[in-house]
Fold:
Amino acid sequence: MNVRDVTGLVREWVDLYGSQDPAFRGAHLLGSINTMPEDAPFAGYRDVDLVLVLDIDKHRPIQELAYKGLILECASHSIKRYRPLQSVLSNPGLAPNLVTDSILSDPTGMLRELHQAVRKDYARRQWVVARCEYEKAQVLHHLDEMSKACTPVEVSFCLGYAMNFLCGLMAVAYLQMPTHRRSLILMKELLKRTGKPEVYDGVLDVFGSARMAPSQVESYLQVALSAFDRAVEVHRTPSPFGYKLHSHVRPYFTEATQEMIDDGCHREAVAWIVVLHYLSNAAIQNDAPEEEKPKFQAGYKDLLRGLGLLAPEAWPSRRQAAQELVDEVFQIADRVVESHPDIVD
Structure:
């Protein structure tokens, strides 16, 4: 299928199912599909992110759905998130998606009007700076949380989130779409564009995957996939990211991660393997028979060991290195915003 085919099927699902909610006010796509040409091929292992805009007070839990060969990740957002315009323009999770024609359904015309307004002011410096400041605040928040972390798992997530938002900072500074699975790959490309490719080595050093070999990463992936398969079977208790524990989501982790490894981005793939292994092991530790839990816990612990996170005495120096890296990337992003030819006052 190509992007046009995928978009048509997602719109069909919205018309048949999503729009039947009495609170429904519209729907739009999220993510990299919004920047792809209509005739570009869309791999079946990729998921499609969409948002149902609902007249509700709070967001609803994310759902992972299967529809005619597609993996749909469906979020339900309160319409309040889309008001006022200034809050949308300053939000790096919304503005880059609404500046494109990502609309799937718009019965009231609200999303179309918002799209036109975002497109008009998206590249204005004040809003680019605001989106950068949003990403910076998230980076600093997770670094602060890292200083309070008590377990290797907590440290790994603080580092992972901090690096992901740092990647997001570089993306929004360049007026690009932030991403998740390939966020480190995008950051590598953007730092090279700034003339600072050496800074990227520090990113992987801080995360812990800089010196991992492809065979090592392949091994981590296989162990994590084994945990995922068992987690799908036993999952009962709600857990972080547990909505991804469905058999139809497996290619999203298997083939998408293998693609990165095959492309020579094995060190970047580790970040995605960490997420996969964490959500799988969490479900197993909650719901699997007691005799199975130690084996899976040992596999997850081996991944944390590979990242250099098992020794608490090493955490302060890792955080210090992360802070120094963050300071440098913040400065780089600021210079990008100052000099980018498409950013206007």
